[in-house]
């Protein structure tokens, strides 16, 4: 099997994992980036307050998402881009929780995505003082990117996995995970919310 996956990164408006305000997506086929996409998201009602801390991190302000697509309006686009790929993210637990929680609060069925954490991969492949995304990406040959821009972060994450697969001679994400004594995470239970009657 080839090295195929989709890297994903979310930025959030506040501490709620449902408050996605930006997403970046990078499609990798046979170890090469073949498509990228990124857009702003208007967070779901009740999860849409922008906290100053988050704004300082990603630089996205409330007025910038006022006319952006809502989570339900953009969800099909996100899922169409990701397809049935394994999703790769740096600290994947966070991004997968955003994906599931934003879907739950908007009563959408979230596909049971599998995931691989590039932070865990980096810790196994590189010898660094810090495994924050900029450090790990630099070790993978992807330096000087706009950290906390969702698309740039997803691209950096993709490069870590591509580089790690090259270094370990892994043919695909499953072989990469296995070679590093990691695993591709299967969803425990699909996050499916019942639509209100």
Structure description:
- It is a single chain.
- With 197 residues, the protein is α/β, with parallel strands linked by helices.
- The chain has one domain (5-179): Nucleotidyltransferase, domain 5 (2-Layer Sandwich), CATH 3.30.420.10.
- 40% of the residues lie in helices and 17% in strands.
- It has 8 helices and 5 strands.
- It has helices at residues 52-58, 62-65, 71-82, 92-105, 118-125, 133-139, 150-168, 173-179; strands spanning 5-12, 20-29, 32-40, 87-89, 115-117.
- A 5-stranded mixed beta sheet has the order 3-2-1-4-5, sandwiched between helices.
- α4 (92-105) links the parallel β4 and β5.
- α5 crosses α7 (150-168), α6 (133-139) crosses α7 (150-168) and α7 (150-168) packs across α8.
- The protein is globular and about 45 Å long.
- It starts with a strand and ends in an 18-residue tail after the last helix.
- Mean pLDDT is 94; it is low at 190-197.
Widest beta sheet: strand line-up: 3-2-1-4-5
The geometry reads as globular
Radius of gyration: 16 Å
- Name the helix and strand elements from N-terminus to C-terminus, one letter apiece: EEEHHHEHEHHHH
Q: What class do helices, strands and sheet pairing give? A: alpha/beta
Q: What is the beta-strand fraction? A: 15-25%
Counting DSSP E segments of at least 2 residues, the number of strands comes to 5
Q: Which consecutive residue ranges, at least 5 long each, have pLDDT under 50?
A: 190-197
Number of domains: 1
Q: What is the level 1 CATH name? A: Alpha Beta
């Amino acid at each position: 099997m080839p090295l195929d996956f989709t890297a994903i990164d979310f930025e959030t408006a506040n501490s709620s994992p449902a408050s996605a305000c930006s997403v970046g997506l990078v499609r990798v086929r046979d170890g090469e980036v073949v498509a990228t996409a990124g857009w702003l998201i208007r967070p779901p009602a009740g999860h849409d307050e922008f906290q100053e801390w988050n704004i300082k991190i990603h630089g996205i302000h409330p007025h910038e998402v006022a006319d952006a697509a809502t989570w339900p309006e953009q969800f099909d686009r996100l899922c169409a881009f990701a397809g049935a790929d394994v999703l790769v993210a740096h600290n994947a637990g966070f991004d997968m929780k955003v994906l599931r929680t934003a879907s739950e609060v908007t009563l959408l069925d979230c596909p049971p995505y599998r995931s691989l954490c590039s932070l865990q991969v980096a810790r196994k492949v590189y010898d660094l003082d810090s495994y924050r995304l900029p450090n790990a990406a630099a070790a993978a040959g992807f330096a000087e990117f706009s950290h906390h821009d969702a698309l740039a972060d997803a691209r950096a994450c993709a490069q870590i996995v591509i580089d790690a697969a090259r270094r370990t001679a892994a043919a695909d994400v499953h072989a990469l995970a296995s070679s590093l004594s990691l695993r591709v995470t299967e969803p425990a239970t699909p996050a499916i919310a019942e639509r209100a009657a």
